[in-house]
Amino acid sequence: MQIFFVALFWMIWSSLVAPEIGMAHTILRPEEVELARLLGNSFSQSLDVSVEQNRKYRAILQARLNTGSGRFEDVKLFLPSGNAQVDLDLLDAVLSMDKVSVPSILRGNDFIDFEFMIGGSASGEISEIAKRYHREFVPQAGSSAFHAIPLSVLQKYPTLFTYLELTSPAHFRSIANKKIRTEEIAKLREPWLRFFDSHPSASKQQILELEKELDLRFALLKH
To answer: Within 10 A of 74 (CB to CB), how many other CB atoms are there?
Structure first.
């Protein structure tokens, strides 16, 4: 079985019905609605774009959810925004996402295809989360700002950090725009996903130690 539907995550969840999300089949099961809600919340909480960026740029990212592992595969920018920073933040939001709890009726060796979108007249969850945007870090020329600690940490370990802590200049790195590709960002986030799996709970010190270890491993630049 393979299900495909486009989840317009900027919609208000109470209005999430089949015609509005463009499902290929006509009936949207409650379990699919719940899965879309969970993924939409994780995506918006991990996404770090400003209100202005969300209004100015439109982008679509396609990703295939493995219903057995609860993780995404085959992530790709279907419609790039034309802005390297926005594309990076969109890729990072999905590639750093912790595994989702797939409803048992949907779980198995199957895949569900999603499209994550930003831009245009977006309202609801993404527009609201964009209001928190705060960034003082200025990346090197020809580079974009990359979160040394993914914002998905805020959901995985909600008591350890605040958004403002993770968006302070100390927790940003420069990544060359030419490296803003799925395989490059996935490589940088894979250690975090493994950490999430092996640490149902974690300390702030453990997170900071992993940040330091990955700085050295990947030669990430602070300035």
So the answer is: 12
**Rounded to whole angstroms, how far apart are CA atoms 152 and 46?**
5
* DSSP structure class, residue 104: G
Q: Is the pLDDT of residue 39 over 90?
A: no
Helix (H, G, I), strand (E, B) or coil at 113: strand
Whether 205 maps to a domain, the answer reads yes
> Looking at the domain assignment, is residue 15 inside a domain?
yes
Cβ contact 9:126 at 8 Å? yes
From residue 21, give the alpha-carbon distance in Å to each of 6, 37, 92, 103, 206: 5, 12, 23, 19, 40
What pLDDT is recorded for position 221? 63
Smallest Cα–Cα separation from 89: which of 31, 30, 129?
129
Query: Domain count of the chain?
Result: 1
Domain membership of residue 100 (yes or no) is yes
CA distances from 51 to 156, 164, 167, 206 (A): 25, 17, 16, 32
Range of the domain at 205: 2-218
The model's pTM is 0.85
Distance from C-alpha of 223 to C-alpha of 156, rounded to nearest angstrom = 28
Residue 223 lies in a domain: no
CB 149 within 8 A of CB 215: no
What distances in angstroms separate CA 128 from CA 35, 87, 125, one per listed residue? Answer: 21, 20, 5
Six token digits for residue 14: 């109470």
Residue ranges of alpha helices (H) inside the chain are 18-21, 30-46, 51-56, 84-95, 125-130, 153-156, 163-166, 182-198, 204-218
